Amino acid sequence: MNYAYEIRQQAEAAPRAALPAVASALWKAFGEGHLSETEAEALSGLIEARQQSDIERSVERIANRTGAPRTGVGSRPRTDASMERRRRWAASGRLPPGLAARFTLAEQAVLAVVAVEVAKRGDCRLAVGHIAAVAGVSETMVRNALREARTHGLVTVEERRLARFRNDTNIVCVVSREWTAWLRLTRSGEHATVARAGRGGCRSPQGTNTPVSYPVNSGVWNPRKGCRQAAGDPADKAPSRNHAGGEAGRAMR
């Protein structure tokens, strides 16, 4: 079965309401290894383009009826750097494959940023604009991703109202057991990697008991000395003098 061809046919023929289901099937097939990264990115771009074009047509129809000016909507990246950040965050592995298959590439990037903040501090209190800038998406996509995650029961979003027209940043907490266990496993793996890097690339040397054929601490065995050391050692000169004296005495007799 050609998964890429089947998903492309569904993405091109499905109505707008069915596109999220097609995207979920796409990332599920990618998580199971039926699609390569290049095919998944191409199909994801096709689905996002379909969604974007449908939204633009809807806004244009509304603008033509009401006379309001057209406004830019959607989450298409404005620069190559933002697209690179989006893909990097989506591929960081901060979501379990089963949960990641429910979201688009942009939504995965948003939830990955939230997951990193939750792993560091226990919850995420970043502003919507901050998350959007880090993940390489729009603020609307951040709100949509958090709303979708809350719909699936993965996170809770606590609003902090300070005044009538002023709020503090929301508090996002991960409540999914599967996601929490995945973050705990990822964090322990990172700690193990850091510990291995701190110890270096080889094991600590340990001594071994090697048997030798001579007593090491006795005076029977003496290492062979060099010429200079032998010349400056009085103990080694004494026998030479006695030996020479003996030979001279015998010669005189």
From TrEMBL:
Positions with biased composition (Polar residues): 205-220
Domain of life (superkingdom): Bacteria
Span list, region Disordered: 64-84, 196-253
Protein's name in the database: Helix-turn-helix domain-containing protein
Organism from which the protein derives: Methylobacterium cerastii
Origin organism lineage: Bacteria, Pseudomonadati, Pseudomonadota, Alphaproteobacteria, Hyphomicrobiales
